[in-house]
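Batch manifest line 226
LIGAND: flavin mononucleotide
JOB: complex structure
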Amino acid sequence: MPTILEAINNRSSKRAFLPKTLPQDVLESILQAAAQTPSGANMQPWVVYAISNQTLLQNIGDAIIEKMSSGVEHDQFIQYYPVKWSNPYKKRRIETGVGLYNLMEVDRKDTQTRTKMWHDNFRWFGAQNVVFVCTDKNNIDGAAGALIDCGAYMQTLMLAAQEFGVDSCPQGSTTEFGRVVAEVLDLPENLALLYSVVLGYADTDAKINSYQPKRVALEESVVFIN
Ligand SMILES: Cc1cc2nc3c(=O)[nH]c(=O)nc-3n(C[C@H](O)[C@H](O)[C@H](O)COP(=O)(O)O)c2cc1C
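JOB STATUS: finished
ARTIFACT:
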């Protein structure tokens, strides 16, 4: 059983999974742990769809890829990434992307392979469980607290998964097509999709799963005032 620090340090986003569904009790234990995430006023703003129905996952992926292929850049409830990228964040984003493509020996100009790698998001990287996290639109109408809470939920989910040997990949790619997901899932009108997390058993032979982008030094992200 990993310690908390081991789970934190060992987790990394995986992008190639074995075709193996999580046992229902494992999935429920992970979701039960995620439900312990603290939230402002204990509002627990997450509304979660845990999907292992392969036809439905295929349909969601098909709908997103079709939308993307028609030239639509996003069809979303919330804007996840900055509208105006500035440094050092822009530099970090570029370095992280370049690092992944270099590892996979994908040329900068090879848009076909890059597009296929992006589409892999909507094939859930081969995993068979995807958790879609939504919140009530009222919670994020002029307020951002529910987004903070649901972000914390994401991390609890991914760390709890570690205990069961379950790997994950958080997905802002689905955030960008949240309305497409909502349509396929026929979500209630009051809900907005925030993100998804792929859960599964990583293919340890897959080169892509060895990618572990580094973090900046503590001095770059923390100001100590003693
Ligand atoms: C909110 C959020 C959205 C993300 N969206 C995607 C995504 O759509 N596709 C993907 O492959 N990785 C996605 N990632 C994974 C990040 O690229 C990854 O967390 C980051 O590069 C650090 O790497 P690590 O998770 O392996 O430590 C996302 C991460 C977060 C936290």
